[in-house]
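User: Second chain of the day. Same drill as before.
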Amino acid sequence: MGHHFFITAAKGLEPLLRDELDGFGIPDLLEGKGGVSFAGSLEQGYRVCLWSRIANRVLLKLDSFPCTSPESLYDGIRKTDWLRHLGPDSSFAVSFSGTAPEIRNSHYAALKVKDAIVDQFREHCGRRPNVATEEPDLRINVHLSKKSAVLYLDLSGDSLHKRGYRTRGGQAPLKENLAAAILILAGWSEICQRGGGFLDPMCGSGTLLIEAAMIAGEIAPGLKRRYFGFLGWKGHDAEIWQSLYEDAARRSRDSRSKIPRIAGYDIDPRALRIASENIRNAGLQDLIRIERRSIDEISAAQNSQNPGLIAVNPPYGERIATDQGLERLYSSFGEVLKSRFTGWRVAMLIEDRELGFRIGIRSRRPYTLFNGAIECKLLTLNVDPERFFVPKIQA
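Assistant: Same format as last time:
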């Protein structure tokens, strides 16, 4: 039976998500605001849950209906046979988004959805499932737009950026799928295939390091997750999921040897402790090296025989209390790149493009990405003497 899916992504990452899903062999993809939709099999939906490095959520469409009032919302939800999806002794949660002339409060609307489901169970079973906000057996998503409501099951259950390896973050940790997006846009897959190494000189909690190793080693990003939204769903096909999972686990074991040299540095001992813990959780402690070093102490000779990739999420205004010293940091980084990393590629996520100019290397056209609510630019540049320039000193 065919299913309709909507795969959500962070703002600005929809084109990258579409490219990724196309690489999974999923046909007839439709890119839209907030994500990508397609009609396909349950196996394809599970594959996205397990393998997508970019997606936030995998939503399975159940129904759509006209909705202009709380009453029409309630009636529309009651049309679904919830006993096909959930048991009376199970748990569920409701997420609601959007508005209508008579529906202005998403919390009130979510309660209306909950009431419709609970009332159906009381009518048919004499008892009702519980509401649980943390890891429910079924997460229900309703989106209201243009007087029409769309009802989804959230097969991911929780945002797919939560890979399962990060128990703590640093001062301003990147979400895992944003880190993966940075690496993909920087061309990391091609660089590592030709033997180039990877370096993050301001590694923080280690997210870029881990995501780089997972891409190079063909490690499914969902392999360490213990919770998915489909596991408590009555429609779950355990045989299909087990086959996909075992294939991903085998591929991970067979491809670890493909991971090139990966190193991370930071001057903050606490950040390095957190990074070390996250790297162990990911099972990559024998493949990622981290040390306490300043920018001035790094060199290409320490990290790869072939030109590789440097990806970094350096400090910017929202991450630290003062801009003092930032220009000096970026200028020093630029001098180190020019003198020691000729031939390497660099990817930097920055908020202030003026700081990016302090590097003194002309970049390609930047990508606009969002680190949470902060609009940032991803600069990608090649460390090529022909692209060097002397930054103007601000008066």
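The longest helix spans residues 106-125.

User: Great, on to the next one.
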